[in-house]
Amino acid sequence: MPDSSTTTDWLLLLYFLPTSQAHARVQAWRRLQRVGAVSLKNSAYALPNSPESREDFEWIRNEVIAAGGQAMVLVAQTPDQATLDEMRKAFRTARATDFSAIADEARALLKRASARQPTSRRAITQRVRRLRERYDEAVRLDFFGVEERDEAAALLEQLDQRTGRRPPMPGSVATTHLDPAKYHGRTWITRPRPGVDRMSSAWLIRRFIDLKAQFAFGDAKSDSKAVPFDTFEAEFGHHGTHCTFETLCERFGIRDPAVQRVARIVHDLDLKEATFGEPEGPTVGRLVDGLRRAHADDEALLRAGIDMFEALYQSMRSEIKPTESDGTSSREKKRGSTSRRRKSSRQPQSHKKT
């Protein structure tokens, strides 16, 4: 029987895709790299056991199965200290490689910045911003902490001081439209510890589908009357390349331009991609992470997330030209005008609902 002091829970993803599915094989490999998984043997990948890791592996498993492959997610334990050290070393080696590459590029940029060439200043600033985003992503995947991380951070700090600010880069979803009225007065259920997709989706539901929507956390099977969202195999969940937020926009025909910008941010953050590269993306990701750390209670966390996305939406909406068609109905515009009243009149929620 293994010593509990040296055992650690791990999640293992085992999958198989036929050689004819070359695109799906490459996509699965890229997804695994983005979530920080380490390869053990051919098609076996590991992550430290956590709700976030489980979510990542479940989505990849579903994509593999949808592509005609086979996949399963297992929980495993390291039986002894030597195996535990070997597993941790594999993760540290992967992250050390990432941080070393970032540090090398940062040194090269520092040399170019020191050359004081005016024509290249903007290009350097943009490269620094992209490098900072790569660093933030590597930090998110640094499960065990590597020394190379500190060196990369110090070099980036020098670059930030040398170049000052870091500018941007710019970037859709629509089909079978459901009637929001049929979803009024319903409770929407999802998994605990909401992240960017569940926070934004809850905001979208309250803003465009049902002003008085209630939210609960737990197993969707425990409440047959509740509407599940962002749960495995839910109607309102990940479908194809869409995250849950995008699925809701498509199913309910929400075409508001400001919402579409929010959708691009949520897509990149939730799927760990850089498809759209909205400049606000990294900041929104930081805010979501901060809210998750600040709120131990799921109800309070979701409420804070809803408020955050309302603020983001209002900010983006203010940038939309009055002549630009937003494709929203008069009912949706009326809902927008009552958003402040909704916040001030919101009643305290019962346990496990918000």
In short:
The chain is an alpha/beta fold. Helix content is 52%, strand content 10%.
Question: What's the SSE blueprint?
Answer:
Elements: E1 9-16, H1 22-34, E2 38-41, E3 44-48, H2 51-66, E4 70-77, H3 81-114, H4 121-140, H5 148-163, E5 187-190, H6 196-209, E6 214-217, E7 227-228, H7 244-251, H8 257-271, H9 281-294, H10 298-317, H11 330-337, H12 339-345
Parallel strand pairs: 5-6, 5-7
Antiparallel strand pairs: 1-3, 1-4, 2-3
Account of the protein in words:
The protein has 354 residues and is of the alpha/beta class. It folds into three domains: 9-79, Alpha-Beta Plaits, CATH 3.30.70.240; 92-163; 180-345, no CATH class. 52% of the residues lie in helices and 10% in strands. The strands form two sheets. A four-stranded antiparallel sheet has the order 2-3-1-4. The protein has a three-stranded parallel sheet with strand order 6-5-7, with no helix packed on it. A hairpin with a 2-residue loop joins β2 (38-41) and β3. α6 (196-209) crosses α10. Mean pLDDT is 82; it is low at 1-7, 165-176 and 323-351.
Instruction: Specify the structural class.
Output: alpha/beta
Instruction: Give the helix level as a range of percent.
Output: 40-55%
Number of helices in the DSSP assignment:
12
- Separation of the first and last Cα atoms: 44 Å
Approximate strand percentage: 5-15%
